Amino acid sequence: MNVVIKDIAKAAGVSTATVSNALNGRKNVSDSTRERVLRICAEMDYQVNHAGRALKSGESKTILFNFSDFDREFYLKIIHGISDYVYSRQYDLIICTSGSCDRFMSKSFTSGCIMLDKSCNDQLLKRKAQKGYPIVALDRILDEPNVKCLLVNNYPPMRELVQGLVRRGYRDYAFLGGINTLDNRERYQAFTDVLKENGIPFHSESYLTGDYREKSGYQAAKLLLIGERLPQALVCANDNMAIGAMRAFREAGVRIPEDVAVTGFDDTPLAEMLGLTTVAIPNYERGYLAAQHLIANIEGAQSYETFKIQARVVWRASVGSVGARS
Fold first, then answer.
1. Helix residue spans in the chain (DSSP H)
2. What is the pLDDT of residues 270-294, one digit of tens each?
3. Cα–Cα dist 218/216, whole Å
4. Does the pLDDT at position 97 exceed 80?
5. Among 243, 186, 170, which residue's Cα sits nearest to residue 210?
6. Dihedral (C-alpha) 159, 162, 163, 168: value to the nearest 10 degrees?
7. How many whole angstroms separate alpha carbon 175 and alpha carbon 153?
8. For residue range 173-203, what is the model confidence (pLDDT) as tens digits?
């Protein structure tokens, strides 16, 4: 059944008027309440139907944000950044996942789309863009008119992270990669480049494959635990997998970082709580910039050059130094 505004209000413990005010960026709603409402909208896949207004006015003034549904916690800061800019410009926002993006990517429903869902393939985006529909694509390169690409600059911070591990004495590595995305390829390339430059061998059997979920990191660590020996450092392509690996290690009595160092990528709230060394991506700013570029193009800017977002390494307790081991 379709989720309606009453369902969101009930789940959030607020009135329908408060949900409406939160979704429309009105100032009479606190930040904490609005974040709670946005989170529940994402969790319940709430979709607003603006077709009637669009048909009457000929202009929807509505932005679509489409994202993968496997890890909705990751997207909250991005959604917050998008919504802050969208509502400041008197646009509305629809949030959906891949199951419904095709039908909403139409000017009869929405003015443009911010796309962060790898299950929506490039051909779909090209087909929509060729009809004059504006798109901002996050974390993918697509050379197509009406598509603006915003990419995290993965390579430099991953180089810095791995070089920092090398300086701390780590010589034996495993890498836990995610699904085959541009992000994963760039992070792995930086990892292997640094090892090669430092004369550190890396063998294909030390590459483990996950799916960016915590469970896959847990399972990958279990595989390492049944081997003859652990690597000195496990470098993970995202925080969720690193957190899953840390849980498996600790359940087995393996000390972090004394027995194995672990690193991630993203800097989620849980990563900070657990002391995970990672790369921090400014996700609020990423969402804000995506909305800013999209609305500028909707309103005629025609700016389609690729924009790269910088990230930074955050060193925490999950990494020590080889010389400090006991």
1. 5-12, 16-23, 31-43, 51-57, 76-88, 98-104, 122-129, 155-167, 182-197, 214-225, 239-251, 269-274, 283-298
2. 999 999 999 999 999 999 999 999 9
3. 5
4. no
5. 243
6. 160
7. 19
8. 999 998 888 899 999 999 999 999 999 999 9
